[in-house]
Amino acid sequence: MAVHAPERPTVVEHTAPNPVLHRVGPAALLVLVVYGILAAFGPDGVGYLSTDTGGKVATLEAMGERGDWDPDIGYWAEDFDPDGSLHPQWFTARIDDRWVNVTTLPMLLAGKPLYDLGGYRLALLLPMLGSLAAAFGARALARRLAESTSSTADRAGWLAFWLVALASPLLVYALDFWEHAPGVALVVWATVALVDVGRTGRWPLALVAGLGFGLAATMRTEAFVFAFALTAAFCISQLPRLGRAVTAGLGVTTGFGATFAANAALERVVIGDAIRAERATGTAAAGAGDLGLRIDEAFMTGLGIDPSGDAASIVSGVVILAAVALLARPSKQQPDEDHDARPVIVAAVLLGAVYLARFTSGTGFVPGLVPSTPVAAVAIVWGWRVRAARTWLAGLALAVPLVWLFQYTGGAAPQWAGRYLLPAGTLLIAIAAVELARRPAFVRGIAIGAALAITAFGALWTHERTTGFDGIMDELANRPEPVLVFQPAFLAREGGPHHVREQWLTAPDADRLDEAGRLLVAADIESFGLVRVADDDAPRIAGFTAAAESAVSSDLFPVRVVTYERTESP
Predict the structure, then answer these.
(1) Which domains, from first to last, does the chain contain?
(2) Residue 70 and which of 25, 48, 195, 335 are 20 to 30 A apart at CA?
(3) What is the pLDDT of residues 235-283, one digit of tens each?
């Protein structure tokens, strides 16, 4: 008769709550202090993580100078260029007699009092609070998904909180006046509300979820996708309780529609047009176009460790995914000291080698979700083991391909962490925290170390990029030429508040450069500077002749200014 060795008991770690790390008030204060210190070393008003922020800050500056709430950023050359084809803020629309560069109104209106009171750095309190709220949302979600003892759920919850707050892309996005962090927070808390619908059956929580998804959609277009996919996955999971599935779907739809309709009404009052609805419609209409490019950018925003998008970059992401999966491989062996350390050592060496290679190659964007959010790989590979998380993993499995199908193309490389996938990465961290809470402390330590390292790299890059552009734009603003014409359109957007006071134009192609020349002649401008990043010969512009050329001090990339002077005859 076979003799079976007794099964070894599962050992659960019991640790006393840390008075700072495991208390809501002190934890929130500590996170905001860290964010504030990082922001204090950055520029105050010029230089951003993305050119999109430049338009927002220019709008805040214009409203502040006039002392009103009208998002008109103006245009000094509107009499000569009524269509705004040369407007220095790319994507500026003329609505009636106003020039509007607004992608989301709620963030802008909420940020105006802060900007008026304390400038750009104080306005950053909004994205900081967004990242903090997302971290608390991840904590709440992890606690609900743990389905274990209160101590295990608490450990998973706080692990999710600290990972999201200080070791995820949301730390990077807390340092830029962009809508990503608040948008992610709203998606995460809406998901928590749906989880509670499943747990309690209280249908008003579905309405709350819809309000959260809808408010997120007023800021981020990808919120449409996550609202649809996560709600669909939840309703399908509730089909055995058909009444709950139907009421949940109706509640989310009602809340979403009410919020989005209210925002559209606000936009019509303040701006004169429903800009978010137009952006959503335009994004949907562009879906599936340039399929080859979309596939390339899907790989880049999913796995790319650098902006090159080449095979080595993607393979590095695959190695990180495999290494983290190996690191977090479940083991039946308990207690911790009996855990097989060999796979952990292999995983740690692989992670160290890949990240070291990236760090030594120089700072820059890490556009992939997995390399920038390595803990997410735990949920991608092992999250199915968390029974309560399977519905949400299914929702993310639907949402992510849809995001890739509809996301704005052409901007995958110059972004941190596949920014359209930030809600997915944050939800995956919450799920991963449940699994990591069950792993030995040294396994968690390696995973946390990798996440901290890449996040610190992102914070360093944000500092270098923002201060670098701050120097470039300040030097350009102090040029002697009365007008600057920017050939790279993105560069003028980095000027932010400079745009409100300077006479700048953008002319990214030959036709618009000729148009700029005619405008300057008509405006009786005697000289101007052409801002270039190309190293070929300066173009010929009718009515002007190139008189001098100088370089702008920059460690980011070469910037040159060619000074043109007016000729007597074109």
Answers:
(1) 24-44+113-467 (no CATH), 468-566 (3.40.190)
(2) 48
(3) 999 999 999 999 999 999 999 999 999 999 999 999 888 877 777 666 6
